[in-house]
Amino acid sequence: MNFNNTNKYTKLFLGLIFDALGYVSFIIPGIGEFADIVWAPASAWLMTKLYKGRTGRIAAVFSFIEEALPGFDIIPSFTLMWIYTYVYSNKSGKNTVTTR
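Now predict its structure.
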C-alpha cells in the first residue's frame, strides 16, 4: 500500500474507516480484546503508510499502544492524526511570507 500521493480528504475517509475498525472490539462481545491483538500492529503499520516521517512513526507507536491497551480503543487516533497534520500543523506553516 502506498498512500504518498493520496488526497487529504481520502486520508480522512480512510482514517475514519480505520478508526471504525478499531471500535469493532466494543461491538463484538467476547472476541474484542483478541481482535486487538491483530489490530494493534495492523493499525500502527497503516499509520506509518498514511503519514510519513517522524510524526507518522510517533503516531504509529501511539496507535499501537492505544489499540493494545484495554479500554483505550475509543480514542480515534487516525482522525486525530489527520487533524494534527492538516489543520494544526498547516496553520503554523502556511502563515509565513516569502518575498522574491
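Confidence is low (pLDDT under 50) at residues 95-100.
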